[in-house]
Automatic annotation (TrEMBL):
GO biological process: L-methionine salvage from methylthioadenosine
Pfam families: IF-2B (PF01008)
Organism: marine metagenome
The protein's name: S-methyl-5-thioribose-1-phosphate isomerase
Keywords per UniProt: Isomerase
GO MF annotation terms: S-methyl-5-thioribose-1-phosphate isomerase activity
InterPro entries, per the entry: IF-2B-related (IPR000649), M1Pi_N (IPR027363), NagB/RpiA_transferase-like (IPR037171)
Coiled-coil intervals, chain numbering: none
Keyword Isomerase assigned: yes
Amino acid sequence: MIKTVEYLGDKVRMIDQTRLPLEKVFIDCKTIEDVADAIKAMVVRGAPAIGVSAAMGVSLGAESIQTDNFDSFYIQLEDKCSALAKSRPTAVNLAWGIERMKRVARESKSLSIPKLKEKLKQESLDICKEDIESNMAMGSFGQTLIDDGSTILTHCNAGALATAGFGTALGV
């Protein structure tokens, strides 16, 4: 299975979809700003992949915040998230990924900041895993409905590159 986006240590690696199909090139994002630039430049495409990338970007942004105070941390996180949200304002999954990460931060305010950062990273990994699981479930359900040899017309990005790695309609 192709990994369109993945968290590797202290960076988020993405397939640069602007280089396909002639080249398979990966870019490494080390900051939330790098992720925002990648989304804006359409390095990553497809609603699910953008949502996963956004969540991972929020985690990178959280890692860069230097404070031990939750209120200060959250204000800085919101500023970073606001800038990320502007990278593709019409992308619903972008806003969804950002909001989910902010909710987890708010619900975890009793944790130390280092533990909160760990929790946010884990949440972004969970979002990625959930995306792949839901894609696989769609593919499994679709297999029972579509006969071999059928012709399928999809709208927009529906393959593995549009998700964290399996595909929605094209996962069938």
